[in-house]
Amino acid sequence: MNEITTLEFDKEVLESGKVVLDFYSSECPPCEALAPKFEGLSKLYGNDIKFLKIFRQHNRELADKLGVKSSPTLLFFDNGQEVAERLTGGVKRSEIIAHLDSMIPDEKIKSIKSLIKPTVTEFDVIILGAGPGGLTAGLYLCQAKINTVMVDIALPGGHVSTTHEVSNYPGFIEPQAGYMLSHNMSEQTKLCGTVYKVAVDVTKVDLDKKEIVIDEFETLKAKRIIIATGTSPNLMGAPGEKELKGKGISYCATCDAKYFVDKEVVVIGGGNSAVEESDFITRFASKITMIHQFDKLTANKQAQEKLLANTKVNVLYEHEPRSFFKDGDHIITEIENLKTKERKKLTSDGVFVFIGFKANISLFKDKLELDQWGYIKTDQDMRTNVPGVFAVGDVISKKYRQITTAVADGTIAAIAIAKELD
After folding, report:
1. 291 touches 312 (CB < 8 A)
2. Which spans in 215-354 are helix H?
3. Residue 71: CB atoms within 10 Å
4. Contact 384, 368 (CB under 8 A)
5. Distance between CA atoms of 181 and 169, rounded to whole angstroms?
């Protein structure tokens, strides 16, 4: 695997055969997460596909010419032509493999796959999930000199990394951008010595054996496991929602609000997430219509007052969505008045859904004792019903789910484990 500059691009990429090129940057956590995967795959596929890296910050003109807007970005070429969709951000090993396999014959793929050797790595503790709870646990454990690995299917940070602003985290007088708060947490834990395995595919979780398989070939073993897998947004289940997800219906204001400058949007929900995210959306959209099933919002009073004072916002109380469909570039939301049963259609440029969350426990839910809402039950030390398995953060059964409560959970679990392993 070689590194090139703009001067070598034509010869090494456009005038070569099959090439995969990584535009990377310094001080870039996604780039750091990608690097070992890229290097490992170069050893497997390097005889058939050329692996190259280019430092984006020193080759900006070329990056701009190619339309590379973020780091890392992987580009796939065959005889000077791009042949696959670009991969960017938290790139998974399986995604790269799928692209590489599409560039070579089947017999070559079989030969390469035969070279993949399963590996086993042992740690004291595996933390499954890199949100605030998992990151805090990792920080306390590494400071206690306990060999710990952090595993996540995405990049570190959890929901905080996509929250536009955090105004109530202790120690900060001014509101903090969510991505910076989570970045600082992650860097602190990483610098302490916790090993990171992020943007990976979690293939198997065995809580009894304390084993986790990632990317289908690497087995991680430990003496203890901390589950910190967090939550995912609830879906409404209304006709059209699944089909329009990512095509007009969004669940992340920080990710997508910027695409609705001077446009009209519908927001479904009335709790803290809906109100806080709607406030953020008002920075971009010209009009917001909130659909809420109750006769009043359920978010905290201060957030409500701020939002309702904004002339861009209108709330339809005691209504629920019944279906969604596309009409040209617009989304049509059919809603029902819960009192009169009357239905009507709202036309907007997009829809944001904030109706709560569900615990991410699909890989191991049958082993754990859960509450009636599907969250993991723990004791005061964050132990689950499975010996040696702890759980922290939004995934556990508790009254309040906040960054601060997740951090507290991670602290408690790490101290309890440190005492057990001492």
Report:
1. no
2. 241-244, 253-256, 272-281, 301-308
3. 21
4. yes
5. 9
Kindly report the CATH number that applies to the domain delimited by 241-353.
3.50.50.60
Per-residue pLDDT tens digits for 243-295: 998 788 988 887 788 889 999 999 999 998 899 999 999 999 999 999 999 99
Q: Do residues 164 and 141 make contact, with C-beta atoms less than 8 angstroms apart? A: no
CATH number of the domain located at residue range(s) 119-232+357-421 in this protein:
3.50.50.60
Q: Answer whether 280's CB lies under 8 Å from 256's CB.
A: no
Long-range contacts of 328-334 (CB under 8 A, 24+ apart): 331/244, 331/248, 331/249, 331/266, 333/266, 333/291
- Give CATH for domain 2-113: 3.40.30.10
Give the Cβ contact number of residue 275 at 10 Å: 27
How many Å from the N-terminal Cα to the C-terminal Cα in the chain? 43
Domain locations in the chain as residue ranges: 2-113, 119-232+357-421, 241-353
Q: How far apart are CA 349 and CA 54, in angstroms?
A: 38
Nearest Cα to Cα of residue 411 among 209, 181, 403: 403
- Provide the 8-state DSSP code for 419: H
Longest Cα separation, the chain: 70
Decide: pTM greater than 0.70: yes
